[in-house]
């Protein structure tokens, strides 16, 4: 069934595993992620960025597509459709009214008081609709960052506590050194801060930039209260590789099913691997 993230993440946190958020990019991503979740008997979060929403034909199109595929595949595991990095109240409201079951309001780039104000407003609307809310503090590195290079700012623990108490959010993404896209070398995550923030907020924590984080760090993050891990780039890389292989092997191929079919299989395999690594397999 389509559900919010609230119960999914609280259960994950209580039982020492994390639920994966896998981002949608097109039809094949949607198919692959839903198939993987059902096969693994894993709860799953479908992440939709504003850009992916535009690319795929809008939030309503995505909700209808997901509903139809869930019916077609007899999906019985819990599925959340989640707005990823929502940039404004308006964008979150649009997703909620389109039928999303969860939203992220990412006001982490502005002043703290503005983050609290817009996040509170989103929570008020979302909770009327039974929709869960994720908020962010600090700066995730990489693409999301306007000032590239050394733009990674760690979330402040006291601000995390205050944001949670003043807004009523359901989960929190404290940026602690993670990066969107591939890491340059080994990631250096702030586990001490993560543990402190988890203790102060008692919230399921969210780890953005899940691509390229070694298993030992994934396990550490989960043990320090991380209950949701976002992955996109790794699926993009594995599917692009599959397409390249097919096209490189045969210059005569033109039917998209011939190269997007293997791309879909590659995504499915990548997602299954992550679900096992995060410990969410057989938890639905
Ligand atoms: O919000 C999306 C994620 O944080 C994805 O990060 O593309 O590095 O896996 P990633
Ligand atoms: Zn992210």
Automatic annotation (TrEMBL):
Which of this chain's residues are annotated to bind Zn(2+) 1?
85, 180, 208
Recorded GO molecular functions are: fructose-bisphosphate aldolase activity; zinc ion binding
Query: What are its cofactors?
Result: Zn(2+)
Cofactor, how bound (note): Binds 2 Zn(2+) ions per subunit. One is catalytic and the other provides a structural contribution.
Give the CDD domains listed for this entry.
TBP_aldolase_IIB (cd00947)
Q: Which residues bind Zn(2+) 2?
A: 106, 136
Origin, by domain of life?
Bacteria
At which positions is dihydroxyacetone phosphate bound? 181, 209-211, 230-233
Q: Does the keyword Metal-binding apply?
A: yes
PANTHER family assigned to the protein according to its UniProt record, in alphabetical order: D-TAGATOSE-1,6-BISPHOSPHATE ALDOLASE (PTHR30304), D-TAGATOSE-1,6-BISPHOSPHATE ALDOLASE SUBUNIT GATY-RELATED (PTHR30304:SF0)
Q: What is this protein called?
A: Fructose-1,6-bisphosphate aldolase, class II
């Amino acid at each position: 069934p389509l559900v919010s993230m609230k119960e999914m993440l609280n259960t994950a946190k209580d039982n020492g595993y994390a639920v994966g958020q896998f981002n949608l990019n097109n039809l094949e991503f949607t198919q692959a992620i839903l198939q993987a979740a059902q096969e693994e008997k894993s709860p799953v979060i479908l992440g939709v960025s504003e850009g992916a929403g535009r690319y795929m034909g809008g939030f309503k199109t995505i909700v209808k597509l997901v509903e139809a595929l869930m019916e077609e595949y007899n999906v019985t595991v819990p599925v959340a459709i989640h707005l990823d990095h929502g940039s404004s109240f308006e964008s979150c409201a649009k997703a909620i009214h389109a039928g999303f079951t969860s939203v992220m309001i990412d006001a982490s780039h502005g002043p703290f008081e503005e983050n609290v104000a817009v996040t509170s407003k989103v929570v008020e609307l979302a909770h009327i609709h039974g929709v869960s809310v994720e908020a962010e503090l600090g700066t995730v590195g990489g693409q999301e960052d306007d000032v590239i290079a050394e733009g990674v700012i760690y979330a402040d623990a006291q601000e995390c506590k205050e944001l949670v108490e003043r807004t009523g959010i359901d989960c929190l993404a404290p940026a602690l050194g993670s990066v969107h896209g591939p890491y340059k070398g080994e990631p250096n995550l702030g586990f001490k801060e993560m543990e402190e923030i988890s203790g102060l907020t008692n919230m399921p924590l969210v780890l953005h930039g899940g691509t390229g984080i070694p298993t030992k760090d994934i396990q550490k993050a989960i043990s320090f209260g991380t209950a949701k891990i976002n992955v996109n780039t790794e699926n993009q890389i594995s599917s692009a590789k599959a397409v390249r292989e097919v096209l490189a092997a045969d210059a005569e191929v033109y039917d998209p099913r011939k190269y997007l079919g293997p791309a879909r299989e590659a995504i499915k395999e990548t997602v299954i691997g992550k679900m096992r690594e995060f410990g969410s397999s057989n938890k639905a």
